[in-house]
Amino acid sequence: MKPVAIFRHARTEGAGFLSDFLTESGIPWKLYKVDEADSIPDSASIFSGLVFMGGPMSVNDDLPWIPHVLDLIRDAVGKDIPVLGHCLGGQLMAKALGGQVSRNPSKEIGWGRVEVIGDADRWFGGLATFEAFHWHGETFSIPEGADRLLSSRWCENQAFSIGPHLGLQCHVEMNSEMVRSWCETGAAEIREHLGESVQSGEAMQQDLDARISQLNRVARRIYGAWLEGLESQDRLA
Question: Who's near 29: CB < 8 A, 6+ residues apart?
Fold first, then answer.
């Protein structure tokens, strides 16, 4: 099988549980450190799938790598190579597919429940709701032809899918180390916006191992469904 390409846009926002899941599943993967100026591939054809992680920047920022990433996403979608996006990654997908990314009515930081919308059993296995991790100030619109899958109290559009491609606003890739690191590096942002939609670092780390364990179970279901698209694409290769 061709490797899965994982694109990291910030040092602290790596693949987390996803990398563990891919390794456990015997799926080869390659990490591209965009934050360290790794070159963006010209074509998606050398990969079985593309994954885009989070980051503190906006997809609307004038950054030299963003147009290349948008082109790569469109190339993958055009070739039915599955794409998966987390937070910034989901926003990149939305923009590449004709959606808009704009400021969310409020920042959403910390643990919060998301509701499954409509017929989304393929991705969530019958779940009606689950507790996800959030850290964003912007949101995406749902691209034309895509299905809205998740919603939360503070953000209407939390996920969309189109064929084998899945864009998430929330974070399902988290592990305990990542949560602790983000609370440390994002302490000033937390203090500035602390309120109903922004939890304190202490609240985010309460019962952390149990929360991560539950989130990993949900992520395992989501990632397993996404892998089915890789396997289908691989059989056609």
Answer: 3, 4, 5, 6, 15, 19, 22, 23, 51
Per the structure, how many domains does the chain have? Answer: 1
Q: Say which DSSP state 15 is in.
A: -
- The predicted pLDDT at position 233 comes to 61
- Neighbouring C-beta atoms of residue 67, cutoff 10 Å: 12
Q: Does residue 215 carry a pLDDT above 70?
A: yes
CATH number, position 57: 3.40.50.880
Structural domain boundaries enclosing 227:
4-236
- Helix/strand/coil percentages in the chain, nearest 5: 35, 25, 35
Tell me the range of 89-98, 113-122, 222-231 where mean pLDDT is highest. Answer: 89-98
Residue 81's identity, in one-letter code, is I
